């Protein structure tokens, strides 16, 4: 086991720094057992070996929405509460960040053929210029959940045709979300007018597609379920909702509160990887057998999002949070809010789709 601590104090909101200056690295070999449902036939004691590193970026308290730009070799993510966009260049090893200051920021997404990014702030969708001062760095695209000013765009990804799929949640009171106030939308060029795909939704926290793009996997965290829809890629429509996994049927590591599915991605073998908020783990799910086949324990409980990254898409990026944590909880889990990189998982991801937006740089 090795532990390396390097101090860094931020002297400017847009300072660019090397990875070595800004991270606390905690890497070791870890084992975990497959989590088994009571009536499952999956093996119970198969050991899973993997490495992980924790990258502690000192300004991050509520990290989420990691996304890999495979053309630029850049990992993007956001700090929702600090309203900051982050970027880590895998080639130069430089980390940069930019404070937006326009409200809760939950989504960042690369745009095909553009230097701009898409951002989800509050319940609005914007184009974002990294090099422009804010608020002039933002160009308005669309508003979601009109008439519900307390709602938040909570999750967003692009499908294989470059449409944006974004889901909202209702107002948050402490750790409780006002139920059934949100919706799942799609937006596409040229007008980017929101189309309601699913309503009501309490808290959209996971969107991904099967390898052949015929299924959309979806998480409304408040249901504690992972659901699937038939997906018509040509028309951009979903149908035939069914449940892949009900977390209420599982026992998770004696967690202090009930774990919640909080993000989903897919690997190159067609298995789903799901972040467990309050569960301190990532699980791997076989959507065909509807069974959990792997569990990967981390030293923090509040896991927010995950995505594949790296030149070979074999590193699983897992974001975490300190949101709503008491001082005593943070003292017990000092690396809450860090990014984790899981290695040697025996699989990898597929490239994320980018948003299609013709002439986005001149919009």
Automatic annotation (TrEMBL):
Highest taxon, organism lineage: Eukaryota
UniProt keyword Zinc present: yes
Domain SMP-30/Gluconolactonase/LRE-like region: 64-321
Keyword Metal-binding listed: yes
Binding positions (a divalent metal cation): 154, 205
Pfam families: SGL (PF08450)
Any one GO MF annotation of this record: calcium ion binding
Keywords: Metal-binding, Zinc
Cofactor note: Binds 1 divalent metal cation per subunit.
Gene Ontology biological process terms in this record: L-ascorbic acid biosynthetic process
Gene3D superfamilies tied to this protein: TolB, C-terminal domain
InterPro entries membership: 6-blade_b-propeller_TolB-like (IPR011042), SGL (IPR013658), SMP-30 (IPR005511)
Co-factor requirement: Zn(2+)
Family under the similarity heading: Belongs to the SMP-30/CGR1 family.
Protein name stated in the entry: SMP-30/Gluconolactonase/LRE-like region domain-containing protein
Species assigned in the record: Pieris macdunnoughi
């Amino acid at each position: 086991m090795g532990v390396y601590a390097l101090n860094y104090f931020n002297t400017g909101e847009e300072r660019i720094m090397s990875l070595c200056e800004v991270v606390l690295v905690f890497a070791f070999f870890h084992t975990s057992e497959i989590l088994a449902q009571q009536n499952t036939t999956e093996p119970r004691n198969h050991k899973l070996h993997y490495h992980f590193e924790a990258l502690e970026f000192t300004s991050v308290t509520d990290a989420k929405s990691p996304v890999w730009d495979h053309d630029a070799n850049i990992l993007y993510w956001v700090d929702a509460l600090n309203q900051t966009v982050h970027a880590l260049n895998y080639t130069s090893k430089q980390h940069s960040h930019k404070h937006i200051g326009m409200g809760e920021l939950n989504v960042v997404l690369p745009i095909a053929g553009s230097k701009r990014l898409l951002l989800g702030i509050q319940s609005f969708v914007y184009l974002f210029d990294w090099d422009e001062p804010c608020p002039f760095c933002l160009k308005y695209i669309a508003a979601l959940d009109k008439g519900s000013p307390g709602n938040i765009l909570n999750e967003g990804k692009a499908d294989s045709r470059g449409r944006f799929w974004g889901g909202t949640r209702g107002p948050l009171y402490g750790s409780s979300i006002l139920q059934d106030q949100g919706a799942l939308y799609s937006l596409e060029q040229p007008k980017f007018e929101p189309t309601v795909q699913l309503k009501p939704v309490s808290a959209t926290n996971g969107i991904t597609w099967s390898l052949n793009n015929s299924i959309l996997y979806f998480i409304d965290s408040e249901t504690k379920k992972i659901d699937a829809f038939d997906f018509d890629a040509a028309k951009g429509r979903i149908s035939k909702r069914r449940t892949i996994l009900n977390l209420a049927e599982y026992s998770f590591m004696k967690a202090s509160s009930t774990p919640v599915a909080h993000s989903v991605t897919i690997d190159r073998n067609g298995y789903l990887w799901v972040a467990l908020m309050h569960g301190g783990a990532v699980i791997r799910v076989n959507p065909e057998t509807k069974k959990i086949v792997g569990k990967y324990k981390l030293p923090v409980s509040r896991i927010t999002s995950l995505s594949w990254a790296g030149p070979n898409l074999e590193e699983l990026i897992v974001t975490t949070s300190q949101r709503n944590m008491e001082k005593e909880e943070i003292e017990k889990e000092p690396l809450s809010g860090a990014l984790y990189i899981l290695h040697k998982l025996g699989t990898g991801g597929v490239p994320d789709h980018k948003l299609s937006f013709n002439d986005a740089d001149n919009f």
